[in-house]
Amino acid sequence: MTVRVDLGTDERGQAVALDLEELLATRLLVQGNSGSGKSHLLRRLLERSAGQVQQVVVDPEGDFVTLAGPHGHVVIEAADYSEREIARFAARIREHRASVVLSLEGLEAEGQMRCAAQFLSALFDAPREHWYPALVVVDEAQLFAPTTGGEVAEEVRRASLSAMTNLMCRGRKRGLAGVIATQRLAKLAKNVAAEASNFLMGRTFLDIDMARAADLLGMERRQADVIRDLPRGSFLGLGPAVSRRPITVRIGAVETSARSSSPKLTPLPEAKPIDLTDLLAEPAEPALPMSFDPRPRQVPADELDQRIVRPEPVATLAPLPTKSDEEAEAIYADTLRTIVADPESAFRPTPELFQDFQVRCRMAGLPRPALDLPGFARRLSCARAGVFDVADPEWRDALLLGGQLPDDMLGAFLLVARAAREGRPCPSDAELARTYGTSSLGRVRRLLGYIESRDLFVTRVDLSGKRSIAIPRLGWTTEPAEAA
Question: Can you tell me which residues the record assigns to a coiled coil (predicted)?
């Protein structure tokens, strides 16, 4: 399918269109000094291609958050979340094909680079089944792929540069089409800029930047002066998605606007010097309390997860029906089965799994799970042992007995209890380690020793080296089995 995006007009007034499908395969580099119209160009591209392709915008100044209203982009305020949450959002974005704006406003330069590196790397590392086509727009790309380290840590610079290089060099096979914009080509790493096949070069004045722009456009050095004379909002375009020969493109109008704009002159106040002096000398009045918080509201991570998965406005959705206790327990059990079925869940922190649990319950139609974090931790321990129905009367005594142990040990206790109750062989140290959330067999042996010191286990090892564990208070005993 061929989709052409109207960018504007050429010097003859004819429409100039960008081939979106070709752009996905060949990438785009936009260059121009501050005030040349780079952000205006990117906004025109995003508005005209919205609804045709997934869009992911890395926005260091928060200028593109206004796309959220008319075009439905999900805004992620990076300053409100941890690096792990940012990476999780990126994975969900690729899975659910949501268009988002990652606003880095409020972060220092090093924090912006660290966050962008984590986000882009997670987009790049998505599983193969989620390699859907997406435009990845990075404004002020020289911040994330600098030629020199500057004042940031070398580790952060390398991580950010590596993520940008992967986006531009290897992203095409994963469906990621990089669209990067920079104020200065000389400050942008060459291995990042060189991977673009389409160019839109705006006004610039420094000789080194004009020379590099002329080289990329296939122009002679003496023709580079034309770049200095470009008016604001005009760009020289070249590339398979734009034109086979350099053309001048005057970017068309946009529907949305940035939160910030260029300063405009306003008339000075009309007052005599003496009056103005008295005015400045007046004592300051106490500041009135603000009627609203001008800062963006922090959206909880699980709520933002929900927006990515189901980006429809909440106001248009019907309220979720109330669930009975039996229906809620069934949702808990199904959700816990899904979580423990993931082999990586054994080594993920319990608070992170709790957030995942809350999101899955909401997706299943349960408005707000009644379990808190400690209650979830105990249910998770039971689920890891294969006990999903904690209301089962046959497990009541075992659960009461296991209640004497810390929450993280309950799963190992119930795993042994389940094997003893069903007359199966004693679980191995490796099985107990997975339930306990560790890979250390030494910790498992210390765990068994602790439970035995509480008079809950009695361990026997026969002459062949096979181990069996009895639970005297329940009258259950496992069959002998190798501990390894």
Answer: none
Residue 367: partners with Cβ closer than 8 Å, 6 or more residues away: 320, 322
Tell me the pLDDT tens digit for each residue of 460-471.
888 888 889 998
Output the pTM of the full model. Answer: 0.57
- CATH code, 179: 3.40.50.300
Residue 430 lies in a domain: yes
> Cα(259)–Cα(266) distance, rounded to whole angstroms?
19
Domain check: are 248 and 355 in the same one? no
- Can you tell me which residue has the tokens 């009309």? 270
Q: What is the H or E stretch that residue 415 is in?
A: helix 407-421
Q: For residues 333 and 468, state if they share a domain.
A: yes
Q: How much is the mean pLDDT over the chain?
A: 82
On whether both 329 and 251 belong to a single domain, the answer is no
Q: CA-CA distance, 401 to 408, in Å (whole number)?
A: 14
What is the CB neighbour count within 10 angstroms for residue 370? Answer: 10
Q: Report phi then psi at 460, rounded to 5.
A: -125, 140
**What is the C-alpha separation between 297 and 320, in angstroms, rounded?**
24
One-character DSSP codes across 7-65 = EEE-TTS-EEEEEHHHHHHH-EEEE--TTSSHHHHHHHHHHHHTTTSEEEEEESSSGGG
Say what angle helices 407-421 and 373-384 make with each other, to 10 degrees: 30
pLDDT at 346 over 60: yes
Last-in-domain residue among 236, 257, 278: 257
Does the structure show a pLDDT above 50 at 279? yes
Q: What's the domain count of the chain? A: 2
Q: So what's the pLDDT on residue 172?
A: 87
Handedness of CA 318, 323, 329, 330 (dihedral sign): negative
Q: Where are the beta strands (DSSP E) in 323-466?
A: 458-461
Q: Is residue 378 part of a domain?
A: yes
* Domain extent for 70: 4-257
Asked whether 181 and 30 are in contact (CB, 8 A), the reply is: yes
Three-state SS at 133: coil
484 domain residue, yes or no = no
Whether residue 341 sits in one domain with residue 194:
no
Burial 325-355 (b: 16+ CB within 10 A, else e): eeebebbbbebbeebbeeeebbeeebeebbb
Same domain, 147 and 242: yes
Domain boundary at 257, 275, 291, which? 257
